[in-house]
Amino acid sequence: RPCASVKNPRKRRRRQRKRASWKTVTGSPETAWGRFSVVKRCDQRGTKRTVAVKHVNKKLMRRDRVTQELNLLQRLQHPHIVSLIDTYETPASYALVMEMADQGRLLDYIVSWGNLTEEKVACYLRDILEALHYLHNSRIVHLDVKPENMLVTGTSGQPTVKLTDFGDAVQLNSAHYVHPLLGSPEFASPELVLGEPVSLNSDMWSLGVVTYVLLSGASPFLDESAEETCLNICQLDFSFPRDYFQGVSQAARDFICLLLRTDPGRRPPAGLCLQEPWLQVGTAEGRARAEGCLDTSRLISFIDRRKHQTDARAMGGVRSFIQSRLQPQV
């Protein structure tokens, strides 16, 4: 079993050799940080193959949670999902050796290259929808769909977007799984915020928020506090400010509204979203997409703000606040 404890000396030596086959690149900074982990660039000794190694802090994450993530990753094979290559263990962390996304995170890639258009946004979303469609067909819900978990590989001419970080993902074997609310709630669905059972369509809400961010550089529900942000989510309190959505087509806004529905049953599944005309190439609505470049200046501030939002604390108190505010006034 991956990351299982080892008592046999021979097994211990094999594990040490396995760990020795991966070497952190000298002088290479961490490529990403998460609530419980840090990702470092590494090279395989001999072949010089470059990979990304996710080190999960043992003090912050239980072994069974890591094992659950590994069990899921070992079953997944899809061109739009970052693949697991190997695993090993250090005294301080569980290490997951992952495929290296050479272009980094999606938002960083967009800001770096510029010239963002609706057509490019639609292409990026199709890649993520393909990944979600694959996951949902196996009853796996990701539960952490956000820009930081979207990586880019390939060239600027034909980039591929891949979904990563399955630390929150679960296979829904029953209709009553309640997921803890951790850190920033910006991309969380109403049912997750309220402590209600999640579903496959919880991911679709999150993708709707991601779409809003890509097109505008702004967060639709963000407020001055986590409590107010959650209240906005549950009350579906968002709009399309003219300054932020100037030059964005009505079809793009309609697609966002299609996903941002408080009732999970009214959100279209990933497979149906892939058939949406706005996401297609060569259709009338596809050709009607706005052709001008989108303003990406706000994405720089968005990226900088999000770097400081990796809080791993549970937010149970937020749910009590939301439920009290949503109760009918007598």
From TrEMBL:
Disordered: annotated segments: 1-24
Alphabetized UniProt keyword annotations: ATP-binding, Kinase, Nucleotide-binding, Serine/threonine-protein kinase, Transferase
Sequence intervals crossing the membrane: none
Pfam family, one: Pkinase
GO molecular function: ATP binding; protein serine/threonine kinase activity
PANTHER family for this protein: SERINE/THREONINE-PROTEIN KINASE 17, TRIO RHO GUANINE NUCLEOTIDE EXCHANGE FACTOR
Protein name: Protein kinase domain-containing protein
Organism annotation: Labrus bergylta (ballan wrasse)
